[in-house]
Specification:
13-stranded parallel beta sheet; mainly beta; 5 helices; 34% strand; Immunoglobulin-like; 545 residues
Length: 545
């Protein structure tokens, strides 16, 4: 008996040591113009119960403000069959999966910051099994790019004397030069090798057109940006297999108020900290064909992408974002042949907020896979997909859903390890699918959500075995939104474009939970459920006029 007691004590000590959080490095912080992402790598905490509170204030302010706690993205060792399932799909995915599962950290984001401002961030980490630490970080947000002052810049006016005139001017331009391009049609197939501005003069449309040949060579690229700090404004890129390619080293490129028409791949990004805003993208896909080839905006490298206020249609995936610490907001994406937005292969602090996604042929939000997290999905409208509003594949985990509206005629399926508050989920095809509790998903945290159902059941009945949604509600479809609406299976577009406002006296009004730094400024007694707060101005999706 004595030997057994010693053995149990030894095992207990090993478990306690494994559960204790060990801090061996400082947390990192990175800011875009209005958000900041934090990551704190740790060791130990095998039971994933370490917590980290976040407070922030603008430098010089007295009062600290609360942000949402850091998300616990624990190291997980999947069983053999799970690993084989995840890594057997594609070789690049095998590498991604094995790298992501090795990581052990807490991460999270602060929202609604001022551009160009300095902030202090206070972190307080504590593990009930042992281990605690506090850190004070400082960070400065970036500023939004602006067009150069023409009066203080070297400006060269470019006229369409020949189709090759613009290409020649670009190759001869030096750092800081501004090419003011007059209306006309120009050849593509050129590289931007210096930090210059190429902008429309304002006298008519500037078209860089593809489908031309140089001798026997087919021109397949519009513009390759190879230098940092380039600005493109007001330009139309038309008819290329690849419209615009941001090459490695082209960091901090700005693409503003441009049009991309009839390109197969419109914007491909292999650099960081780029700003892609107020553009119109119409690809060459036929939505009903179901093609998964030909993207709107696709990012492969770097951090800190800011992709906002674009309108995108007739592509496979309007947005494919593989880059962490990036902001995707205000976009209007519809009428596409594959998924609306892909998080596949991305990292922590990908922030998707205030967008509208609808009438895409396959799925709404793709996790194929997304591992570790968090990806923040906040105040988006998703509606009308032939398959599901989530593509939950290959053991994906690590998502935060707050105040979204998810509507579809098919069943939804939550990925693993989801935090969910104040969302509206359509469930008239049946309750949301979810995964069994186990070592991979680390469980769910679901509450204060609204489920749209034909059945008279409670939200708790949907998740009875998980003990979730104690404050959730279930509503009939006809009791929810102000306007009559129907979800049409693509390729038929929802028309007019959906704007899912709650009707007067809807039970989803004031039925949500307060989330620090996320639901600030709500109207009434508590935040509403769904993407649109009753009584608040309606959002603008797509380019600003």
């Amino acid at each position: 008996m004595k030997k057994l007691s010693i053995a149990l004590l030894f095992v207990s000590s090993l478990l306690a040591a494994a559960n204790e959080t060990i801090i061996k490095e400082k947390p990192s912080i990175y800011a875009t113009m209005q958000c900041a992402g934090i990551q704190w790598n740790i060791e130990g905490d095998s039971n994933n119960n370490a917590l980290c509170k976040v407070e922030f204030r603008e430098k010089g302010a007295v009062e600290w403000k609360k942000a949402i706690d850091l998300f616990r993205a624990g190291a997980v060792t999947p069983d053999k069959s799970s690993l084989e399932t995840a890594v057997g799909w594609k070789n690049h995915m095998s590498i991604y999966v094995q790298e992501r599962w090795k990581l052990n950290y807490l991460a999270g984001s602060i929202f609604n910051l001022k551009e160009g401002a300095e902030y202090e961030v206070k972190l307080s980490l504590k593990d009930p099994d042992g281990g605690e630490a506090s850190e004070l970080l400082t960070v400065k947000t970036r500023t939004y790019p602006v067009l150069p002052d023409l009066k203080s810049s070297k400006v060269t006016e470019v006229r369409p004397v020949t189709r090759g005139t613009l290409r020649k001017a670009v190759l001869g331009a030096k750092e800081g030069d501004v090419l003011l391009v007059c209306a006309g049609v120009y050849d593509g197939n050129f590289k931007v090798l210096a930090p210059i501005t190429i902008m429309a003069a304002g006298d008519g449309e500037v078209i860089i057109e593809g489908s031309m040949k140089q001798g026997s060579e087919t021109i397949d690229r519009g513009i390759d940006v190879c230098a940092p700090g380039v600005i493109l404004s007001g330009i139309t890129v038309k008819g290329f297999p690849y419209g615009l390619h941001l090459m490695p080293g082209s960091d901090r490129t700005s693409i503003m108020s441009c049009k991309f028409i009839g390109n197969h791949y419109s914007i491909e990004v292999k650099s960081g900290e780029n700003y892609i805003s107020d553009n119109s993208i119409t690809g060459d896909n036929i939505p009903a064909d179901g093609s998964n080839d030909g993207e709107g905006i696709e990012t492969h490298a770097g951090v800190g992408q800011v992709i906002c206020r674009n309108i995108i249609t007739r592509v496979a995936d309007p947005l494919s974002i593989e880059t962490p610490n990036s902001d995707v907001f205000g976009n209007d994406c519809y009428g596409s042949s594959d998924d609306a937005i892909e998080t596949d292969d991305s990292g922590p602090n990908l922030r998707i907020f205030n967008n509208r996604f609808y009438s895409c042929l396959h799925n709404g939000l793709s996790f194929q896979p997304y591992l570790g997290g968090p990806v923040y999905v906040i105040r988006n409208q998703f509606a009308g997909f032939r398959e599901n509003y989530f593509k939950d594949r290959y053991l994906s985990n690590g998502a935060v859903f707050i105040n979204n509206t998810f509507l579809n005629n098919t069943k939804g399926s939550l990925p693993n390890h989801v935090y969910s508050r104040n969302n509206i989920y359509s469930c008239w095809a049946g309750p949301l699918d979810y995964h069994d509790i186990g070592p991979i998903n680390q469980g769910y945290d679901l509450d204060y959500d609204c489920f749209v159902s034909r059945m008279s059941v409670s939200a708790g009945d949907y998740f009875e075995d998980l003990g979730q949604e104690t404050h959730g509600i279930v509503l009939k479809k006809e009791n929810l939104f102000a306007a009559d609406w129907d979800i049409v299976t693509p390729p038929v577009l929802i028309s007019p474009a959906p704007m899912f406002e709650l009707k007067d006296r809807c039970p989803a009004i004031d039925a949500g939970a307060e989330i620090p730094n996320i639901t600030d400024g709500f109207i009434g007694k508590a935040p509403d459920m769904g993407a649109l707060e009753k009584g608040a101005p309606l959002p603008l999706y797509g380019p600003r006029k």
